[in-house]
Specification:
Protein name: ABC transporter ATP-binding protein
CATH superfamily of one domain: P-loop containing nucleotide triphosphate hydrolases
Largest sheet: 6 strands, mixed
CATH architecture of one domain: 3-Layer(aba) Sandwich
Shape: elongated
Number of strands: 14
Helix content: 25-40%
GO molecular function: ATP binding; ATP hydrolysis activity
Strand content: 25-35%
Order of helices and strands: EEEHEEHEHHHEHEHEEHEEEHEH
Keywords: ATP-binding, Nucleotide-binding, Transport
CATH topology of one domain: Rossmann fold
CATH class of one domain: Alpha Beta
Strand order of the largest sheet: 6-7-8-3-9-10
InterPro entries: AAA+_ATPase, ABC_transporter-like_ATP-bd, ABC_transporter-like_CS, ABC_transporter_ATP-binding, P-loop_NTPase
Family: Belongs to the ABC transporter superfamily.
Distance between the termini: 35 Å
Amino acid sequence: MQPIISVSNLSKTYASGFHALKTINLEIRRGEIFALLGPNGAGKTTLIGIVCGIVNASSGSVAVDGHDISRDYRAARSLIGLVPQELATDTFETVWATVSFSRGLFGKKANPEHITKVLKDLSLWDKKDSKILTLSGGMKRRVLIAKALSHEPQILFLDEPTAGVDVELRKDMWQVIRTLRDSGVTVILTTHYIEEAEEMADRIGVINHGEIILVEDKVELMRKLGKKQLILELAAKLTALPETLAGYGLTLNADGSEMIYSYDDAGERSGIATLLADLNQAGIGFRDLHTTQSSLEDIFVGLVSKKS
């Protein structure tokens, strides 16, 4: 299937000389939730700005559903909804008026039924006649999403969509984003909340210093880079590990009360049985054991620190 967004050899250098993007190549699949992770200044917002036609690229090309963003700007931009980080919106307008106006900016005929559906889907219907200035920060962010969806885009960019939103509202918005994906909308989000990407994304992209470090299916990324650990609570503290166990790469915690065995994939689980037998042979007993696995945050921090 043809990707809905294709980015080829994209670079951006600002007038100051700052090289924000360096030869970016990226394809976004139709109908997926794609999370773009990266530290501040990594190039996330610049990349989104170029794809959405807000920032001019220095070199390279971007196609949106086959439409080149430079040669066929209107067709490409009409397919995109953008929810920016900033909460600035039409402060003195009502929710209904500002969302309806956004639809008109794309040359779409008035469609009260669609606006009604969007507001109801985003739990904004009871606020439709309220002025924006009276809304909470979380509700204002929902209004930004409603404005972005007003012209029925096929692609939705969410730049830090839940920044400043409380935990309960954040989870509600996650469900809204899943519902959009299920309706066929392709969703690309940037986020500082690693759990947000881990919860929702189909694929993860990591960008740092203007370069794409990695793009991977989330499940595959967790499988390949997620470190698993077996932690054994020892019956008696150890000051050192026996030489007979050196081949396992074991470590002791600070006070010698726990032994930690790290392994990288399911295939090494067979080594656990051998380890336990060797522990018994060495006369090392344990009271309890449990396993842990790296989170996406652990993986992200590790990737970025390696490339910094």
